[in-house]
Amino acid sequence: MLAESYYLLRSQQDGQYVTARPRDPQERFLLLFRENFEARSYLNTHGEDMGDRFGVEAIGQTQLKALLNRWGFQGVGIVTDPLIPTVDFLTYF
Fold this sequence. Notes:
Helix content is 24%, strand content 37%. A hairpin with an 8-residue loop joins strand 2 and strand 3 (29-33). The strands form two sheets. A four-stranded mixed β-sheet has the order 2-3-5-6. Strands 1-4 form a two-stranded antiparallel ribbon. The protein has one domain (5-75). The chain starts with a strand and ends with a strand. By secondary structure, the chain is an alpha+beta fold.
């Protein structure tokens, strides 16, 4: 069985990932996209003047836990509609 991949937006200037803070400003949720074009669409819709400052990275599902631990994220936000945007938040324990 193939591992599912997700796509992330990462700053080319400082290496920070695009995150969401839905409730508490201290909580950070890593934004994940199911397709490369969805990540680009999100960036072009909500940050059109910043498109050249971010890159799209692919990450395998098996690598996600280590990334969450290393950066101290409380969970993930899976973007289901990049244009509105609609995000499903999942807390990581």
